[in-house]
Amino acid sequence: MKKNTILAMVAVVILLVGVFLGRTWSPQLTTESGETAANEILYWVAPMDPNYRRDEPGKSPMGMDLVPVYADDVDGQPGVVTIDPTIVNNLGVRTVKAERGELSRRIETVGYVDYDEDTVQHVHTRVDGWIEKLATTATGDPVVKGQLLFELYSPTLVNAQQEYLAAVASNNTVLRNASRDRLAALGVTDSQVRRLEKEREASQRVRVYAESDGVIAHLGVREGIFVTPATEVMSVARLDRVWVLAEVFERQSAWVEPGQMATVELDYLPGQPLRGTVDYVYPELDPKTRTLKVRLRFDNEGVTLRPNMFARVTIHAKGFGEVVHIPREALIRGGSMNRVVLALPEGRFRSQPVKIGIESGDRIAIRQGLAEGDRVVASGQFLIDSESNIEVALERMDKKAPMDSNEHQMQEDAPVDHSQHDMGTSQ
After folding, report:
1. Is 28 helix (H, G, I), strand (E, B) or coil?
2. Domain 80-100+322-399 is of which CATH architecture?
3. Which of the four, 148, 292, 331, 422, has the lowest number of CB atoms within 10 Å?
4. How far is it, in rounded angstroms, from Cα 73 to Cα 355?
5. Could you say which DSSP state residue 394 is in?
6. Among candidates 149, 121, 141, 124, which has minimal Cα distance to 237?
7. For 227-246, how does the pLDDT look when each residue is reduced to its tens digit (9 = 90+)?
8. Beta strands 338-344 and 322-327, pairing class
9. CA dist., res. 377 & res. 93, Å (int)
């Protein structure tokens, strides 16, 4: 009987121990599984440079072992925010991958059509006189080679013609040649000299003719005005060849070289891009706009390009080597720091400082801060970046709050000096 009682007591003790172990062992398994999930390794970073990240263990550029970053560590980092997927969808958040590859130097800028200055004829007189008859009266009038431009009355030219006629009549060869050279120096053409020899009468008006086809690009006189050799009477420019002058930003000025391919688009010719080459790169920048002027030359047989037309110019320069680059719209520019919004797993986002490189079209190179394959927010990043900065600010405030409360308590406990107050009362 006593033996049965002992066995029953042992059984009860074993049962109680089993229940106790069951209750304590099960939570331990849950905790370990939870820790395993929380301690999932997301990526590895360099100990001295958190921006250097890799997807597997390895060495940093300084030769140090990479340090793993766990999921719970990322959640605890300042600036990491978690957004519900539904809200992300409603905000229209769009993410893109950072790519590594060749980034071409494509310069997109604007320009305008201008006259080809090699074809511009500036008309001046070589003597003082008066414009007696002006054949072209408005800027933009077309002219053809040999067309009369104006007639000039000049006492100096009249006297020079009379001297030449006197030299011809004297049969003095030396004097005749000297008088003829003087007429040529004053702008009298050979045909006008032959007419003078034939008619033997000095003309009161000397006619000036156009030397090439074109249009009146500038008209600086009217009939009856007195002109001198310094007066620009008019300028005639051809339209069969034109220039396109483009403005290149200072940061892209080193990319441009003569001979590079270029594409020009005009609103006048939608869907019909013109292809040409860079003809000349000007040696200095505009001090006001801080841009470099680049010249392109185009044939204009059909006169489709007219001076002062607005043009969109794309210059295709030589490419760089392989770099990490993202869309330009994904970059948040700051006064002293540029950054992007990094898309982390499970709906988490973090503001990431980056160092940028060259810009080419709608892409921009990232020198530091991103690795190939990282996802960045390209739409709606400003809202997330603001939220991230608010989280950082709140954490700083929380850290500073105990110190502020202690300082406030110290101020309350400090003795109050009533001497100045009493002195003011006594006064």
Report:
1. helix
2. Beta Barrel (2.40)
3. 422
4. 24
5. H
6. 121
7. 999 999 999 999 889 999 99
8. unpaired
9. 7
Task: Give the whole-number percent of the chain exceeding pLDDT 90.
Answer: 18
Is residue 17 scored above 60 in pLDDT?
Answer: no
For residues 178 and 167, what is the distance between their CA atoms, to the nearest angstrom?
9
Residues in the chain: 427
Side-chain-side CA neighbours of residue 306 (13 Å): 6
Q: Which fold has domain 121-237?
A: OB fold (Dihydrolipoamide Acetyltransferase, E2P) (2.40.50)
What CA–CA distances, in Å, run from 85 to 20, 29, 88, 392? 43, 31, 5, 22
- Which tokens is 255 given? 């990319």
What does the alpha-carbon distance between residue 350 and residue 345 come to, in Å, rounded to a whole number?
A: 11
Burial degree of 76 (CB within 10 A; 0-12, 13-18, 19+): exposed
Nearest CA to 360 out of 108, 110, 109, 106 is that of 106
- Predicted local confidence at residue 416, as pLDDT: 45
Residue 339 CA: distances (Å) to CA of 114, 125, 251, 334: 41, 64, 20, 8
275 against 44, higher pLDDT: 275
Distance CA 107, CA 317 (A): 7
**For residue 116, what are the contacts with CB-CB under 8 A and spacing of at least 6?**
237, 238, 241, 242, 243, 297
Residue pointed to by tokens 């605890």: 76
Are 205 and 133 in contact by the 8 Å Cβ rule? The answer is: yes
Q: Enter the tokens of residue 279.
A: 């003809």
- Cβ atoms of 381 and 341 within 8 Å: the answer is yes
Q: CATH for 106-116+239-316?
A: 2.40.30.170
How many helices (H) and strands (E) are present in the chain, helices listed first? 8, 25
Say how many C-beta atoms besides its own lie within 10 A of residue 242's C-beta: 23
From the list 125, 147, 154, the residue with the least C-alpha distance to 221 is 125
Quote the crossing angle between the two packed helices 173-185 and 155-170, to the nearest 10°: 160
249, 255, 271, 292, 331 from 107: Cα distances, Å:
9, 9, 20, 12, 19
Question: Contact at 8 Å (CB) between 239 and 215?
Answer: yes
Q: Are 207 and 157 in contact (CB under 8 A)?
A: no
Question: What pLDDT is attached to residue 281?
Answer: 94
Written as six digits, the tokens of 330 are 């994904």
Q: What is the pLDDT of residue 130?
A: 95
From residue 276, alpha-carbon distances to 115, 216, 249, 292, 298 in Å are 16, 27, 20, 19, 7
